[in-house]
Amino acid sequence: MQHLINRFLSYVKIDTQSNPTSKTIPSTEKQWNLANELVLELKQIGMTDVSIDHNAYIMATLPSNITYDVPTIGFISHFDTTPDFSGHNVKPQIIYDYDGGDIVLNVEKKIVLSPFYFKDLQQYKGQTLITTDGTTLLGADDKAGIAEIITAMEYLIQHPEIKHGEIRIAFTPDEEIGRGAHKFDVKKFGAAWAYTIDGSQIGELEYENFNAAEAKVIIKGKSVHPGYAKGKMVNALSIANEIIGILPPEETPQHTSGREGFFHLHHMKGGIEHAEFELIIRDHDAKHFERRKQLLRDITNELNKIFGDCISLEINDQYFNMREKIEPVLHIVDLAKEAMNAVGVTPIIKPIRGGTDGAQLSFMGLPCPNIFAGGHNFHGKYEYVPVESMQKAVEVIVKISELTATKQF
C-alpha cells in the first residue's frame, strides 16, 4: 500500500493542468515535467520500447512471457489535470482508518469533506483516504490511473510466474480538454484493444458515453441611447437571454442523470453591442443528439428573422458514443467483468456522463472501454481517492493481463 501511495503522491505534486485556449500539444509546457519523469520510471522498472514523442505521448511495452500467440492488449491513462480548478501546489492529506465522519480539509477556510453531502464517503469507513487540503484539486483524475498501471506492470515484471501476452501502455496529455487522443498513434500502439483506467468509484466499467458537441453563439447588437431607443436598439444581451430561455430549462446538468442529455451554458460575456456565449450539447442517443443540435439551429434561424441576421452559430462535434464500436467486440468487456469478479470487485456497468479518450480511440480503431481508477469528486477541492480502491484497480489490471493469456479470441 505505501509503495502505491508514495508513487501517487509523487505525481500529484507535479502541476500538469492543461489549457483549452492553447494551440500546442501538449497545451501546457508543464505537462512535460511529469511526462519526462514517467519515461524514466518506466525504464527503471524494466519496461521495454519506452518512447515519448514530440507531443508528449508516452508508450511502453511489457513483452509476452508465453510461447503461444494471444492478442496484444493495452492500458491507457492521461497525465494532465483539468483547467477548471487549480492543480498548483497540491498538498495531499492522508486519512488512515477513516472513521466515517466529517473530514476537515482546511481549518482556516472552514472547508469540510462531509458524508452528509458526499454520501459515497460512507462506503469507505475504515479505509485509507487521500484528500486535498481544500485549496486545489487532487489529481486522481487521472494520476491514480497512471500509478495503478505502472504498479501493475511492476508487479508483473517481479512475478514472471504470472503468464501474460504482450502488454502495451500509454500515457497521454490534454485529455481534460478533449484532445487526449488527437495525436495518439493507434498503429504504433499496436494493441487489439485497450482499457482506459480513468473511471471513478471502485467497480465502474463503462463502454457507453455521451455524444458531444460544442456550440458558440455570437450576437451583434446596436447601441442607442435608451431614452430614444424605440425601434432602433438591438440589445445583444437580451437576445442571448432569449435564446437561452427557449432551450428546455429541465434539460441542464443539474436536472438530469443516467442517460438523459442536456444543454450546458458554461461561458457568457458581452454588452448591448456584442454578446457571446458557449454551450456544450450532450446525449447518449444519437438521434436525440442530432435533434438537440437542430433545435439550436432552428432557434437561431427564427430569431435572425426577427432581429435581422444578427446571430451567428457555430457547432462542432467533439466525440461520439463508443458503444457503437464496443458492442461488436463485447468480449473485451466480459473479460474485464471476469477480472473484477475474480479479485472481489463487483462490476458497476453504467453509461459515462462525460467523455473519455476511449471514445475517440474506439472510433480510431482501438476499442477501449473504461475501468475505475477509484477517485471521487473530480475537478475540485473535494476530490479524494481511497487507497484500497487503487489497490483493487492494480489487481484488476494484473488479472485482465493474466486472463487474456488463457482465452481463445
Compact summary:
By secondary structure, the chain is α+β, with helices and mostly antiparallel strands. It contains 10 helices and 17 strands.
Description of the molecule:
This protein has 409 residues and is of the alpha+beta class. Helix content is 30%, strand content 22%. It is built from 10 helices and 17 strands. The chain has an 8-stranded mixed beta sheet with strand order 1-2-8-3-9-16-10-15, covered by helices on one side. A 4-stranded antiparallel beta sheet has the order 12-13-11-14, with helices on one face. A 3-stranded antiparallel beta sheet has the order 4-7-17. A hairpin with a 3-residue loop joins strand 12 (262-270) and strand 13 (274-283). Helix 1 packs across helix 3 (140-158) and helix 8 (331-342) packs across helix 10 (387-404). The longest helix is centred in the last third of the chain and has 22 residues, at 286-307. The chain is globular and about 85 Å long.
Q: What are the defining features of this structure?
A:
single chain, 409 residues, alpha+beta, eight-stranded mixed sheet, four-stranded antiparallel sheet, 10 helices, 17 strands, globular
